[in-house]
Amino acid sequence: MILLDGKKTSEAIQQEIAAEVAEIKANGGKVPHLAAILVGNDGGSVTYVNNKVLACDRVGFGSTLVRYNDDVTEEELLGKIQELNESEEVDGFIVQLPLPKHINTQKVLEAVDPKKDVDGFHPANVGRMVAGLTSFLPATPYGILQLIERYGIETSGRHCVVIGRSNIVGSPMSILMAKAAYPGNATVTLCHRNTYDLAYHTRQADIIIAAVGIPGLITADMVKEGAVVIDVGTTRVPDPTRKSGYRLRGDVDFDNVAPKCSYITPVPGGVGPLTIAMLLKNTLRAARKEVYA
Ligand code: ADP
């Protein structure tokens, strides 16, 4: 059993990006710049955005954090998005989700210039991904592809079972794994909350990608010997032995599943750390105008 080390892989990718930034600087070019819009004071969102800004510093990117109270109007938000769309300085930007209820999230996401949409949430990028055109891939699926590729895991002709059909993880993952490319060329089954007999499907999987947010849903009896298991779930469960009072648990019953696997991601330290690296990678691609060339 080989652990898929997301932390190490994320660090390697960030080092590669930092080296590219150093080269851009040495050639007198413009350093990539990421902006983030954060609405409100939700603890999780504040931490995520701060980590993204810190990561920019680490690789030598410029960054801007725009903060609003949670009573910000949709108009104000759309105005800021327009400004960032037109900014010469900002190569890519994100709107941290979730947004307050009075704001139409879809309208906000569609206001972002697809060329600067480094989260890959704009329908133009989703459509380009489905059509097999260059696009900004959402960070989590992009990170999973990197893990598979950097560990040289075979995917062609394999049966990949994706569990969860969210717009940001499960659905794009199922599309990417079925593509005529590496990683890809897999036979894909997409399971979700209406799937009858989930275990029937997972037991046939060479590769399982679980993105449901139900701790321990995937148990050892549901996994074939030698399977590759990628766990996207990170649910906070109470843990009085921790200072924080909680710990992160994945969708996979790691202790019992791991011995059966050829490869498996830990939680934490698997897919999670890659999302920031892939956001930076998308920002670099935006600055290089690689996606809409
Ligand atoms: P994420 O952001 O990680 O993708 P979401 O909460 O947005 O997570 O999506 C959860 C997905 O998990 C949904 O697509 C839902 O259909 C799926 N799901 C929820 N419960 C089950 C279940 N018991 N079995 C299979 N899939 C499930």
Secondary structure layout plus pairing:
Elements: E1 2-3, H1 6-26, E2 33-39, H2 43-59, E3 62-68, H3 74-86, E4 92-95, H4 105-111, H5 123-131, H6 139-150, E5 159-163, H7 170-178, E6 187-191, H8 198-202, E7 207-210, E8 228-231, E9 235-238, E10 246-249, H9 254-257, E11 263-264, H10 272-287
Parallel strand pairs: 1-11, 2-3, 2-4, 5-6, 5-7, 7-8, 8-11
Antiparallel strand pairs: 9-10
Helix pairs in contact: 1-10, 2-10, 6-7, 6-10
Could you explain how this protein is built, in words?
It holds the Pfam family THF_DHG_CYH. This protein is of the alpha/beta class and about 290 residues long. The chain folds into two domains: about 25-115, 3-Layer(aba) Sandwich (Rossmann fold), CATH 3.40.50; about 140-270, Rossmann fold (3-Layer(aba) Sandwich). Helix content is about 40%, strand content about 15%. It is built from ten helices and eleven strands. It has helices spanning about 5-25, 45-60, 75-85, 105-110, 125-130, 140-150, 170-180, 200, 255, 270-285, and strands at about 1-5, 35-40, 60-70, 90-95, 160-165, 185-190, 205-210, 230, 235-240, 245-250, 265. The strands form three sheets. Strands 1-11-8-7-5-6 form a six-stranded parallel beta sheet. It has a three-stranded parallel beta sheet with strand order 3-2-4, covered by helices on one side. Strand 5 (about 160-165), helix 7 and strand 6 form a beta-alpha-beta unit. Helix 2 (about 45-60) crosses helix 10 (about 270-285). The N and C termini lie far apart (about 40 Å). About 40% of the residues are buried. The mean pLDDT is about 95. Bound molecules: adenosine-5'-diphosphate. Adenosine-5'-diphosphate (ADP) binds near residues 163, 164, 165, 198 and 214.
